[in-house]
Amino acid sequence: MPIHLANGQVVPNTTGLPAEPSLGPQPPVFVPEPVQGTPGANAYTTTTSTFTVPVGDDATPATLTVKDTSWIAIGQPLFIQTAGTFTAQSIINGNTFTIVNSGLSGNANPGTVIGQGAKVSPGGAGGGGGGDSGLPAAPGIPGTYNLVKDSILGLFWDLVGGDNILSFSLGASSPQVVGTPLSTVGFTATSNVAPLSASIAWSGGGPSGSQVVTPSTTMSGSFSGPFNGLTNGATMTVQLTCIFVDGMRMTPQTIVWAERTFQGVGGAGATGATASGTNAALSGGSAGGTTLVGTAPILNTVGQTFTVAASNQKVYDLVPHTSTPHTYVDASLHIPFGLSLSQTFSFLNEHGVSESWDLYESTYTLTGTYNITRAT
């Protein structure tokens, strides 16, 4: 939520941060009256289902279903009517996202069920309730500001433009296969000018922590775990925070753990499977010993397309369990493809992690090459 201080007005700096370095006499900043333009998209939405307020540990997520998430940014403070101010943690799709609770004064108690139809808007927009809104005091330098949040320092008004983080990346790829251990994670970052100070913080997938980073236009280092994601979708969030002369900048990166999926052809009647390196071997029926080829780890399996070549054989697809069975289409002909849920069983992946998996088998014995998409 931006705040505009114009016409040279100076508000005392009450944020508790060190005063900005003196830049010498500066001309006043004048912001002209805005010219009415074409209306843009609404920067608010409403919930379309109930949700439960998560605990105020700034880590435990709650999933919200809303009419539109297109305007929401990861890390953005959000005011939710009757619930309070929370932080957007991740955007799942156009209607679903997750929040975390910093436990700000005035937030609803953890465990409170918030009803459908609650308005969601940029942080602090609720107002009207009196008391502590949880927002920091207005900044003391004229300009345009965004309300941003640091996992260590809390909420800040950040001056738009000026010094910036140019890049931030982690040394570990994402996604990792569920159960892949990471003893240390490296990082590199660049900025257009050297910050006054810098720090990195991490949470999820193991112990949370933070450490100081030597400020420079080129920064690098590592932090130690051990880290591991033992469920499909487990996530570690890493955030770089830099304090520049003109304000604070933050940028996050994530490492997600996800499962592979496995496809292949074989005889009929498979009843289970075991991991075989990065592949899986079917068991049971006349399919016993058949190898299903593993893909790279993938979090959202809907929309994934795979190719198989059958010769009077059944087609198989082994995927992590979902509460609603998948449907399939022929990606070339754009017609339904006959794969149905055959078995659900506990599958031990290549790292020894056991989760519930679904095995789909084609309705008919097939011959030919098929491009198949998991449609839903």
Task: Describe, in plain words, how this protein is organized in 3D.
Residues 1-35 and 124-133 have low confidence and may be disordered. The protein is globular, with a radius of gyration of 25 Å. It has 3 domains: 1-33 and 43-160, Elongation Factor Tu (Ef-tu), domain 3, CATH 2.40.30; 162-258, Immunoglobulin-like, CATH 2.60.40.10; 262-374, no CATH class. 0% of the residues lie in helices and 48% in strands. It is an all-beta fold and 376 residues long.
Shape: globular
- CATH secondary-structure class of the largest domain: Mainly Beta
Q: Any low-confidence stretches, pLDDT <50, length ≥5? A: 1-35, 124-133
Which sheet architecture does the biggest sheet show? 10 strands, antiparallel
Could you give the count of β-strands? 29
Whole-angstrom Rg: 25 Å
Would you tell me the overall average pLDDT? 83
Domain module count: 3
Number of helices: 0
**CATH level-3 fold name of the largest domain:** Elongation Factor Tu (Ef-tu), domain 3
How much helical structure, as a percent, in the residues? under 10%
> Could you say which structural class the secondary elements and strand pairing correspond to?
mainly beta
Strand proportion = over 45%
CATH architecture of the largest domain: Beta Barrel
**N- to C-terminal separation?**
37 Å
Q: Which H/E pattern describes the elements? A: EEEEEEEEEEEEEEEEEEEEEEEEEEEEE
